[in-house]
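In this supplementary section we document a worked example of the pipeline. Step one takes a protein sequence of length 147 as its only input; no multiple sequence alignment statistics are reported here. Step two produces a three-dimensional model, which step three serialises into structure tokens for compact storage. The input and output of this example are shown verbatim.
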Amino acid sequence: MTSVITDTCIKCKHMKCVEVCPIDAFHEGENMLVINPLHCTDCLCCIAECPIDAIAHDTDPRAEPWLGLNAQYSQLWPNVTADRGQTPRDADLFGSLTGKFDHFFSPRPGKGDAEPPVGHLPSPAQSRQGQASAWERMKKMFRRRLE
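The serialised model returned by step three reads:
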């Protein structure tokens, strides 16, 4: 089981989902994100965080056409774990559009984690070069939700 990013993400690329993913399953394209289905633990955290409902569970009929795209591009695009201002300034104009794949999809990769986040202080996990176990990250995520 996995979560799947649909074409709704194209030209929007909101990053809240990336920041709550406990296992860093997101990969960044030039104008959208995808989830690596081999890494996703099906925790559903990202679905709840997406402000435009661009992420679906793989059993949702909306996910079917995008399963292959997520699997393919998660192998080609760089991993992304933090918001570095990747959301386009005009994302709100594209959030409710349909059929974006045919008009706006780009197979080009994004920058991924190539640069540190602007104005972002590294967490203890990042200070250890991101080597925190998935279990530690899950505990941190749940603590944040309880606060």
